Amino acid sequence: MKDKIFRLIPVFIQELLIAIFNYKAYKLRYGSKYKEYRKLFRKNRTLTRGELTKFQSRRFDKILKFAKENTKYYLEFQTVKIQNLVTLPLLSKENLRKDTTDFFTISKKAGIVSKTGGTTGKSLEILFTPDNMQERFAMLDDFRSRFGYELGKKTAWFSGKSLLTERDLKKNRFWKTDHWHKVRYYSTFHISQRYLKYYVEDLIRYQPEFLVGFPSTILEIAKYGAENGYQFPENTTKAIFPTAESINEDMRSIIESFFKTKMYNQYASSEGAPFIFECSEGRLHLELQSGIFEVLDDNDQPAKSGRLIVTSFTTEGTPLIRYDIGDSISLENEEKYCTCGNNNPLVKEILGRIDDFVYSPENGKINLGNVSNTLKDTHGIKKFQVIQDELNKIKILLIIDQAVYSEKTERTFLHNWRDRVGANMTIDLEYVGEIPGEKSGKFRMVKNNIKHLIS
């Protein structure tokens, strides 16, 4: 009913309601503890590695004690120090989904509910305490403030908000604006060649100081703008903060070139994973103040590159200790330090979701990075998506630029795939005009529907 009423009322009232909704949300995020946390994280930016690990150890003692005293799931856990963390069991997504209420320390009424997108399974519900929510936003805002951002600065936001009406589509208006907080929300559900022109032209008119949101959407806009001769005004946008999806160097290059600014990456999750932040030198840092990061191989042994296991300090509403979050990262050597002054350990690469892989019976798993690199030495491929419904077969949907794409590009693209999946796999290319996104508004480069067949 609320949705139907929203679609019937005038745009200026819709935008007023969005501002009121945001005001209520911001009251929770920026409450009495928020300023204290901001001061703390600003003060702690120059902590030594030793001081950071001591801070981390104290927070671990606190979260484990709290979890044991307030949840059914952790009740029988041993009391251990951080050095013996590996003696505690791993927590899988399936266990969390199956017994979620065994993890809750507060009621839904007293907490703040966060839901995962559910693109790789049933959606999860996580509860945050108001204090934890304020701490997380203080940490995130401390990161973004290093590049000039504060709430109230003019921002273009690209996320899974469904705010448009039929009237908007008829008028080629793919955004709604919270004028009070200076945020314009652009739809991520209408990113097609038919509509990209309107996104680019409105962004040029709006001239946001910051762009935040799904990098796959921002990429499509940047590519369209560059290919069609649009010039984004210089010295307008100070920084771009991608969210919710992995990025690679090709994406970064195209986006930064069109918008004439730098992109600063971050890692977190709807469940409340600890943060990874990019610094001014372009290096990724584990944020030890936010939690504990373990990297394990397929045999659950410590590794430099592999599955990410997290223990979060900011999820007291739903404690997550040794949680297998379903992502993978690659670490730098522990002895390495960054020249930016941040002494947190370095991350070589965020590899993305473990579920986002193509499986070859001949060569095994091909991760997202290797999938995206199949574009090497090709020209005219605008976008592609790989769908695997059978062990020995993949379908690749391709959007191409007819003026540039050629038989040579097709041969090169297929050769790149053969290098990865081997000689025996069937590869079907299907040329399409559009590739639909997910219900969340995100774009998935790989849709693997046979994970249950792979041991």
From TrEMBL:
Domain of life, per the record? Bacteria
Cite the InterPro entries for this sequence: ANL_N_sf (IPR042099), CapK_Type1_Caps_Biosynth (IPR053158)
Q: Which PANTHER family match?
A: CAPSULAR POLYSACCHARIDE BIOSYNTHESIS PROTEIN
Q: What is this protein called?
A: Polysaccharide biosynthesis protein
List the source organism: Kaistella solincola
